[in-house]
Structures are given as C-alpha cells and as structure tokens.
Amino acid sequence: MRVLIADDHELMRDALVMFLQNAGGIDASTAGSVDEACALIEKDAPFDLVMLDFNMPGMNGLAGLTRTMNIGGGQRVALISGEATRDIAERALGVGAAGFIPKSIPAKSMVNAVRFMATGEQYAPVEFMTASDAPSSNPLAAKLSRREMQMLKGLTEGKTNKEIARSLNIQEPTVKLHMKNLYRKIGAANRTRAALIAREAGLF
Amino acid sequence: MRVLIADDHELMRDALVMFLQNAGGIDASTAGSVDEACALIEKDAPFDLVMLDFNMPGMNGLAGLTRTMNIGGGQRVALISGEATRDIAERALGVGAAGFIPKSIPAKSMVNAVRFMATGEQYAPVEFMTASDAPSSNPLAAKLSRREMQMLKGLTEGKTNKEIARSLNIQEPTVKLHMKNLYRKIGAANRTRAALIAREAGLF
DNA sequence: TAGAGAACTATCCCTTGGTATAGGTTATTC
DNA sequence: GAATAACCTATACCAAGGGATAGTTCTCTA
C-alpha cells in the first residue's frame, strides 16, 4: 500500500512515516507542501492514499484538497489537522475527501484509519464529529450570551456592524450595544483586538 | 533520563514518546495540558526535562512556561511548537526556558536536542533563530514594503492608527495612506480583515 | 539623466465605530 | 410578584477609519 504524507513540519512527517512503516505493509512517501505533493503525484502515481495537513503552505483552506484530488490518477485524499474545526472536517468530507484525521487521536487509531481509508471507505472519528460546539469547553465562550457569540463570529469574518445587523435581522444600534458589552467581557479595546482574541482562543 | 511531554495532541505525544524511547536511555511520561503536567511534576518529580507545546490549553502564551518552571524540583522546561515565531522563541529563552524546538526539524534533531538540554545546555536551532523576517518565505510578506509590514504588525496588535503613528514617529495621515495601500495589496476590506489575513498567513 | 517606486505629509469629506443614555419586552428565578 | 438577565430599539455625539487627491523627497535603476 502506497501512502503520500504532506505536512510542512518535518517532525510530524517523520512521526507519521514511522508509525505507518512499523505497522507493516505500508510504503510512505513525504512532501513538505501542496506543490511538492502534487509534483510527486504527477511523477510517481499511483498512491492509494494522500494525507494533507490542513495548516500548510499552499492549502488555502480546502482549495489545496480539491486540487490534489483532481490531478493525476484518481488517488483518495484525506485531511489531517490539529486545529481544524468540525465545520471544516464536514466541508472536507462534503467535497469528497477520503477522511479527516484530527491530531488528537492516538497513533494506533491513525494507522487503523489509514488502512480503512485505503480500502475505499470514508473515515472520521465519531467523538470528534459528534462533539457539540461545547460552550463550556472554552473559558471565553462560557462568559458570552448567544448574541455576543454571534457578534464574535461576525467579527472573525471581518464584517461591519451593518452587515452583521443585516445577517441577523436586527438593527445596527443593537449590534453596537452587543459589541460594547462583548468588548467589556473579553477585555478588548476595539473590534480588531476582539477578533484576534477570539481567534487565539480557538473560536471560529 | 526522565522526560515529561505535554501536548494536547495525542498523535504528537505518541510520536515524541516513540522517538525518545527508540533512542534509548530515555524514560518518557506524558500529559495533555499544562495543569496535568504540573500535577505530574508535583507528584512524580524529579524530571530531567519537561517539554511544553506552545499551543495548548492553559499555556496562555508564556505564562504556562514560567508556571511550570517555578513549581516542584527545579526541572528544566523547553518549549515545542509548530507555529510560534522567532520572537516567541527568543522571549521563552529570555525567561529561562531550557530550549525551543520547532516542529519543522527532523525527529533525529529533536532527540539530539533533548539530550543536549538534559545536560543543562540551552538549545535553539540556528537556522530558525537566524532566519531573517524572511520577506521571501511568505507569499504575503513578499509583496509588501517595509512600512506596510510595520502597519500589519501594528494591526495584529490591535493598535489604532494614532498609536501606530506614534510608535513609528510618523504622522497619522501617513499611516492611513500605508493602510490603504496595504488593504489593496492583500485584498482586505478593512483593518479587522487585514489583521485576520495576516494571522492566517502566520505573520506575527 | 530621466523615470519609477517607496516613503512622507497634508487636506477634504464621508462612513464606520464606539460610548452614553433611556426605555422597552420576554423569560427565568427566587 | 419582584428581581435579574438577556435581548431589542432609538437618539445623539464624538472619535476613528478610510477614500481621493496632490505634492515633496529620496533612492535605485534603466
């Protein structure tokens, strides 16, 4: 079985290769970027499975995934990520990814998942996909009301108050009020800092 | 030699443990958060070296690092990270970390670094620490002038135009002009989006 | 030496953001 | 039934952000 691993962190590449080699019967190649991976596929196809790190130069969200799926000889492509949200995992599976592997799973499960995907199945860990949006899990989110969370979401999309108001069917003054309360709660001096704080907290 | 590895990704924990065990002479324990790591240190000290993932629940920037250094029996603590900047690495070493290990290094180098640090030395990979702010390495940064990069830096700190002007000893209108050009170059509609784009590109 | 590009300053003008204040409804809790 | 909290609307005011335009200096390069 031939597997191609693309991750910009050599430490992670080395780790994945070692786990797969040790499991036996798997021949692993590596690449450090999407470009490199695509070049390898063109040159050295076919691979049974390609694993792409979500946070890697050239990925551009899911663009790198679809690009990798569309070249060469019909290889199956899975996403692997430490930070990606359930939303991203679902979108990846939606566009036809072979699977989604969070880095929070044990190495043994990863190896099993690779074998599973290589047989043509679609893989995603149940506990990850069914995890609720867990307001309690995040110290920041716990303090905020429903509306304030929606404000924060709008902020992390770079929207203006007016746009946020429109998308929620409320008036702009209302948005401003929620914003003010939000800033106070999370200790932000302005919307840009609020957006950065939200991102650093792993929200959205 | 006893090493404690703290990372919220089980896949990474498994990998580090395996590499260290295989190298021989190293006894590795693991934790999934800063709290867990501290509890283990209190209970099961002494460790020769503690390795903390920078992006982990409870780290709070470098707060988790200093906390881990200050408890228990004088263990040495190193930072490990895939995304951290040189600036962060320098600050970590500045407050007395045993070393900084980027995930972009090979597994073999990681093992050598661990042995090195356990002997009391301070470790940081030369190529990482001497890398210039690398305008060429980042597709985004390559397009920007020196001033525009400074604008972007100010943005990612949530500063106002006035604050940025003061810190660079230029006038506010000048900052606005650079901002306008910056937005055009990176395709941002406003400062918040610009800040988010910069962060996503791994800048600052 | 002419031209291009980066950087700086400036002014005008409009939009957006942020605070203060005030008054209202609804649901939950004590 | 009163208190609390979340949510909604509104008005007014000032600060900050952002576009347009115009001109200066400097440096590097064709």
TrEMBL record, chains A, B:
Residues 2-118 form the Response regulatory domain. This is Response regulator transcription factor. The modification 4-aspartylphosphate is found at D53. Keywords: DNA-binding, Phosphoprotein. It comes from Sedimentitalea todarodis. It comes from the Bacteria. The keyword Phosphoprotein applies. Residues 137-202 form the HTH luxR-type domain.
